[in-house]
Design goal:
With about 200 residues, the chain is α+β, with helices and mostly antiparallel strands. The protein has 5 helices and 7 strands; from the N terminus they run ααββββαββααβ. Strands 1, 2, 3, 4, 5, 6 and 7 form a 7-stranded antiparallel β-sheet that branches.
Length: about 200
Amino acid sequence: MGRRYYLSRLGNKVLVATMKILISLLLLCGCLLHPMTSRASETNLDHASLKAMIEGLGYEPVEKTYSDSGAKFWELSFPRGPWTYTVAVNANSRETLWTSVEFAVYKGPPENIPQSALLGMLLENTNLKWSQFRYQANTHSFFLVSVLRNKTISPADLRRVIDEIVAAADRTQKLWDPKLWPKSAGAKFVKAVPEAAGAAQK
């Protein structure tokens, strides 16, 4: 009887000790996971933290407003020869970070765009890692656009995107500049001053 009682008490002690260990492990896991979740949420860029990141890269962002939505974005200027590319960066969505440059020089009908230019942009998309050419029908404008998941974006990620967009815009002028399109295309374009290249919504 005494031995059986002793074993029973021993079993209870083992059970209590095991429960304490399990509870401790659960608490430890909670402590470990919580900071990781906090750090991840802190890396989601908003308008203010995006500005800080851009300035940390050495750029001088200028705050602008989209005319259609009224949303704020940061504009960066990159003088390149006869053109000044204006790159728009915004983190208005908690889900995505948008970086783009608009080539606001062609306002003619889409059917006048030469196939060589369109095919060239499609081929260029295969060479781009972070961005791609897009055409916006309602404004008759070509864009270079990058859309990143707005989570754990590093300054190096943002610099790579900006560098790629500016470099691609610079080397593909013959694709998006109507003045360099084949004459047989019959394309008409709006004469633009250099600053108009990549002009985002004011």
